[in-house]
Amino acid sequence: MPQTHHRTNAAPPCSVVAMAEDLTKVYGEGESRVVALAGVSARFLEGEFTAIMGPSGSGKSTFMHCLAGLDTPTSGTARIADTDLGPLDDARLTRLRRERVGFVFQAFNLLPTLTALENITLPSALAGRSPDPEWLRHLVETMGIADRLDHRPAQLSGGQQQRVACARALASRPAVVFADEPTGNLDSRSGAEVLSLLRSSARDLGQTIVMVTHDPVAAAYADRALFLADGRIVHEMPEPTAAGVLDLMKRFDGRTPTP
Amino acid sequence: MFRTAVRTLRSHALHFAMSGLAVLLGVAFVVGSLIYTQSLEAAMAEARAASRPDLSVEVRHDFSPSSDSARLDEALLRRLAALPEVAAARGAAEGRSFLVGSDGTLVGSLVDAAGVNYVPGKGGTDPRYPLTAGRRPRGDGEIAVDAHSAERAGYRVGERVRIVVNGTARAVRLVGVFDARDERLAADGTLTAFDTATAQRQFANAPGTYTSISLTAAPGTSETRLAQRAQALLPPGLEAVTRARLDAEAVPGEKKLTMLLLSFAGVALFVSTFLIANTFTMLSAARAREHAILRAIGATRSYVTRLVLAEAVLVGVLASAAGYALGVGVAAVLNALFGATGDVPTPLRPFTAGPPLAALAVGVGVTALSAYIPARRGAAVPPVAALRAERPAAVHASHRRTVAGLVVTGLGAALTLVAMDAEDLFFAAVPVLLVGLIMVTSWLAERTARLLRSPLTRLAGVRGTLAVENARRNPRRTAATATALMIGLALVCVVTVIASSLSRTAERDAESSMLTDLRVVPVDFAEIGDDAAGRVAALPGAAAVTPLVDTSIRLTDDGFVSAVAVDPGAMARLALLDVRQGSLDGLAHGIAVSEQAAAAHGWSVGSRVTGTFVQADRKVDLPVVAVYSGPEALTPALISTASLPEASGAVGRPSVGSILIKAEPGRTARLQQDIRRTLANPALLVQNRDDVVKEAVRPFAPFLAIMYALLSVTVLIGALGVINTMSMAVFERVREIGVLRAVGLDRRGVRAVLRWEAAVISLLGAVLGLVAGTLVGAAVVAGHDGALLVMPWDRLALLFAATLAIGVLASTPPGRRAARIPVLRALRSDIE
Ligand SMILES: Nc1ncnc2c1ncn2[C@@H]1O[C@H](COP(=O)(O)OP(=O)(O)O)[C@@H](O)[C@H]1O
Ligand SMILES: [Mg+2]
Known about the structure:
The structure holds two protein chains of two kinds.
Chain A lengths: L15 E12 L6 E12 L3 E5 L6 H9 L6 E6 L2 E2 L5 H11 E4 L11 H11 L6 H11 L14 H14 L4 E5 L7 H18 L2 E5 L3 H4 L4 E6 L2 E7 L3 H12 L6
Parallel strand pairs in A: 3-8, 3-9, 6-7, 7-8
Antiparallel strand pairs in A: 1-2, 1-4, 4-5, 9-10
Helix pairs in contact in A: 3-5, 4-5, 5-6
Chain B lengths: L1 H10 L1 H39 L5 E5 L12 H8 L4 E7 L2 E6 L12 E6 L12 E4 L7 E5 H7 L6 E6 L2 E11 L4 H4 L3 E6 H8 L8 E6 L5 H11 L4 E5 H7 L3 H34 L1 H9 L4 H38 L15 H26 L19 H21 L6 H48 L1 H39 L4 E5 L9 H6 L4 E14 L4 E7 L1 H7 L3 E5 L8 E4 H7 L6 E6 L4 E12 L7 E4 L15 E8 L4 H12 L4 E5 H9 L2 H33 L1 H9 L4 H37 L9 H18 L1 H9 L2 H6 L4
Parallel strand pairs in B: 4-9, 6-8, 14-19, 16-18
Antiparallel strand pairs in B: 1-10, 1-11, 2-10, 3-4, 3-7, 5-8, 6-9, 7-8, 12-20, 12-21, 13-14, 13-17, 13-20, 15-18, 16-19, 17-18
Helix pairs in contact in B: 1-11, 2-9, 2-11, 2-12, 2-21, 9-12, 9-15, 9-21, 11-12, 13-14, 14-15, 14-23, 15-20, 15-21, 15-23, 15-24, 21-24, 21-25, 23-24, 23-25
Bound molecules: adenosine-5'-diphosphate and magnesium ion.
The site of adenosine-5'-diphosphate (ADP) has 12 residues of chain A, from β2 and α1.
């Protein structure tokens, strides 16, 4: 698809959209103390599609949550588009998420009472804005859900629901979209559809995407892959392939991650 | 099984809390009502038993037509005393006698303000009334009173005090104070003792007679036997009544109060059932998985049902126990509320067997009954549901139920209309109407929510959309919650419409009945002395004064006519009548009749009205001197007070109902004060036009306040229902709340969504309650002859708004809890 839509409020090309500096996160105290993040630094450039990889319990979700303003790190800095999340209170963090961040969850997490369209426009509605109709039309067409807009989530298949969720994440043109295991609950065909949609959003629309996954096939859709183990980034792989990722994981871990 | 139930109860304590609280309140209401009324009854029964310990049989008038001429005299007393079965006989001359306190007001409850005769026994004292100070009364200038009343009135032996007997106030000397155990004292009355001759003159209907004779049975004689023997000696018109029958006759006013209180408690409990059913339905849905696993590993359906019922029973038992404790407090509140007039509070007896048993039965019964259907439905989950992750869909309004509900609602509305002509039907119409409304409410809930979607979206944006959609999700639950609010508001509206209308009616009647500048009327249970009108007329500034004496004439040619006896001269000066035929000049020796009466009986000027006075059995034969039209108080006939029969005694003589007074121009206020000073009788009200209206509407405000107080429990439970429903909603939607928070809903927004949802639910309940309550109230008033229908719109609007506000406010605690849930925990919650 040709790139017809220019991002109006985006930073200049190759600028850093999200950044983590020496993030740590410690849960619990004493006996039950768990270091989920042990000093993670990373930069995410505009239009870049990054996969965060790692075995279960390696801190992928925690990293994403801290970076997205859903959780507060124990120390270190997280920035979204020049905004330091550290000093923000709950209301400001909420506003930031609403305006600058999009989410795609593993369990779809659409509001069951709202139609597909209402789900898509929910963040802008919460902000009291109406989304650009052109952009919206383009999005739903890209996602292939144009004829499903009046349906409720219960009337949609899993793949369709996840594409609605993607549209919701992209609708407000956020600085960055975070996706946590977006294909975890999908069959491989629907998963592939969703992944190519995410990739084309990054390539064609210049959308920055950070995707948490432990699936090497999913990681292969990304522009680069970061590998986490025990709360640290242990490797970075540009242009990952499924075979390469699998290979690396075997080497790090001595075992294949559970799918 | 109970161990499992205890565990469930612990882990879901918060969810059971509201149900428990609702049952607790209902039980406390029941227990409080029972303890209070039983204590009242027990206190009365005790006082009754102690009051005349020596009474076995009482001889009294039987109120048959020959009763008037039967004499309870000294000769009869002696004959009865001579019976071998009689150990002692005492003649009583009792009637009403008010004690005026040192502050100028009447002392105690006026119904039970009694005058009695002091019967000195051996040693000069009456064993019923042992003197604690002074001596017994002698002559008509002396009295003795019971110690409690003397203290309340602020009197000591030897002082001059004022009493009111037969409508006239007089000063007497207080010569003695006695101790007494008497049911009238227990009911907050007073006892004023006179010597027998004075009491007879004041209270008996013929000189030298008594008002009753009490007999003490000789040892070994039963009351019944004694009554039979005594009856044989009595002339027609008198009867001998055993003590047992007297006690049974004592009007059980408390029974009515018990029923009233218990029916309010019943409404409160009924409202709780919705809340309980909601809770158990929600928990059954939340635990469908758990139940399905139980079923999959071999538990029977009835086992699962019993498991849930065991929880209900446990909640019921806990709530009943707490409710009983609170009920003791409620009894004290009721005691203060209803016993407010007296300063002797009834001693409460909280530890009888009845209330705890009732508490347990009601508490456990209501909880188990309301939980039964949800339990059955919960147990109906198929074992395969254990394998499915999602929770079962909410039950939507069934079509059949809605249609049936509409039919029942229609029937209820029709019955309400019919009941306007047959008031007893209201007791059937109101429940039918309510049941119908309850049945259609889930459908209405769905409808309302759909209707409200776009206006609310416009008003509150996507928060509004979410709220409406959430309210629509579980129409049954929304409906049950709204219903609980509806019932409370409906009943409040019914009493409000009725009280406002009756108050306005009383005001109108008072205005139209007030024919002159001033009037004198007695307070309840009191009367106006025969000489009062004369004393008022003698005052300067009184232009025209007439007493109004209601009497009734039994006509020779069958039928009755009521007549009002007036002062003919004053009547002419008052100029209240429109004389159509003849003139009032001859009224002193004739009768004036209204146009209607003239038409009904075929009278015209010159015809004669013949018959007898009903009260005194004395002949009347008067010429018709005028035909008039006039105000209702002066119809259908007027005669002169001079034509009235002479008073033959204290009982049965026609008495002055009121005195009408026309003042000289500009002298009204002065005259009012002068009359008060002259009559110096706190049992008489001297009123101008404003006073009359104020007096007429005076009882309504406290009545309404008591009704509101009783209904407040129901409204409170309705509010608990909203808290409960919103808490359950939060519990079920943690994950959704997490998503909303993640995509940009702030804490305030979370609260707002819940608040709007509560507003939708409350709006439904409030609209239904307002409409149903107003209609029923209006129908009751319309069915009440002569009542004006007044819609107190401002107050109804206030009640409506208050219900909405209560509902919305009730969403605050769950809203706050929802807003506090951390986003991540919410997102990870596995409940969806
Ligand atoms: N709320 C929490 N409390 C305590 N420990 C937690 C919490 N969340 C995550 N952890 C721990 O932090 C570590 C990293 O978790 P997570 O980021 O979810 O890993 P991943 O997403 O890579 O599987 C794990 O050991 C996990 O047990
Ligand atoms: Mg994870």
